[in-house]
Design goal:
Number of strands: 2
Radius of gyration: 23 Å
Shape: flat
Number of helices: 11
Structural class: mainly alpha
Strand order of the largest sheet: 1-2
Length: about 250
C-alpha cells in the first residue's frame, strides 16, 4: 500500500513538472545566450589563441568536452553538495576534467598542446564553464545539463573558429595551416593558400586584430537581433490591427 502511494505521489510530482524546452536550450547556447557574444565570458583564451583556425578549433574542442562532462557530473552530484561548498566542488570537478584533457592532448596532439600552452589549464577558470555549472547544471537533470553544456560549448566553438579562420586568412593568407598538429601528419595537405602576401598582415595576427574581429562579430549579431526584433514588432502590430478591425 505504501509503495503504491509513493508511486502515485512520484507520478503526480513528475506530471507537475513542465516539459523540457529543448529548442530553447539549443537556441540559448548557440545564439540568444551565447557565452562569448552575449555573456562575454572566456574572452581571454578566445582572443589569445585565435590567430589560426587550428589553434581555435583545438581550444574549442577542449572547452566543449569540459563543458559537457562537467555539467553532467555537477548535475549527478548536486544533491550531495551543500550550498556552502558548491563552488569549490564545482571548480574541483572542472579542474579534474581539464587535467584529463590536458594529459590526452600532451599524449596525442603534442604540437597543438605546445601551441596552446597555458590556455589549456586556464580552461578551469573559464567563467562560462563555472557559470553553467552554477546557473544550470546544479538545478537541472543530467540529460538537460549535458545538452546545455553541448550547446554552450558549440556556441563558444563557433565564435572561436570564425575568429580564428578570419584572422588566419587576413593575416597569413592561409586556412588550416598547422592542421597536422591536431589531426596528424596526413592533414598537412589540408592547408589552403587563399592569398599570396609578401609580408604578413600583422594587425590581424596580433591582439588588436582579435579585438577588432570580435567587435565585428558582436556587431553583426546585434544587427541581426535588431532586425528580427523589428520584424516581430511589425508582425505583432499587424495582428493587433487585425483584431481591432475584426472586433469593430
Amino acid at each position: 500500500m505504501k509503495n503504491t502511494e509513493a508511486a502515485a505521489i512520484e507520478a503526480s510530482n513528475t506530471a507537475d513538472k513542465p516539459a523540457t524546452d529543448w529548442r530553447e536550450i539549443i537556441r540559448s547556447g548557440l545564439w540568444t545566450n551565447n557565452p562569448a557574444l552575449v555573456q562575454l565570458l572566456g574572452l581571454c583564451p578566445l582572443l589569445a589563441v585565435t590567430n589560426t583556425f587550428i589553434n581555435a578549433l583545438g581550444l574549442a574542442i577542449a572547452t566543449l568536452l569540459v563543458l559537457v562532462v562537467s555539467n553532467l557530473t555537477v548535475s549527478l552530484v548536486k544533491q550531495w553538495v551543500t550550498k556552502e561548498i558548491r563552488i569549490p566542488v564545482f571548480i574541483m570537478i572542472i579542474a579534474s576534467f581539464v587535467t584529463i584533457i590536458q594529459l590526452l592532448m600532451n599524449a596525442y596532439t603534442f604540437g597543438l598542446y605546445l601551441s596552446l600552452g597555458i590556455f589549456i589549464p586556464l580552461i578551469v577558470t573559464n567563467c562560462a564553464i563555472i557559470g553553467r555549472a552554477e546557473a544550470f547544471a546544479s538545478k537541472n537533470a543530467p540529460l538537460e545539463s549535458a545538452v546545455d553544456g553541448l550547446m554552450m560549448g558549440l556556441g563558444f566553438a563557433v565564435v572561436l573558429v570564425l575568429l580564428g579562420g578570419a584572422r588566419e586568412i587576413l593575416g597569413q593568407g592561409t586556412l588550416f595551416d598547422g592542421a597536422h598538429l591536431l589531426f596528424g601528419d596526413w592533414a598537412t595537405s589540408m592547408k589552403v593558400q587563399v592569398f599570396e602576401f609578401e609580408q604578413q598582415f600583422l594587425l590581424a595576427i596580433l591582439p588588436p586584430g582579435a579585438f577588432i574581429g570580435m567587435g565585428l562579430i558582436i556587431a553583426i549579431k546585434n544587427v541581426i537581433d535588431a532586425k528580427q526584433a523589428s520584424k516581430k514588432q511589425k508582425q505583432n502590430k499587424k495582428v493587433e490591427r487585425a483584431r481591432v478591425t475584426h472586433v469593430g
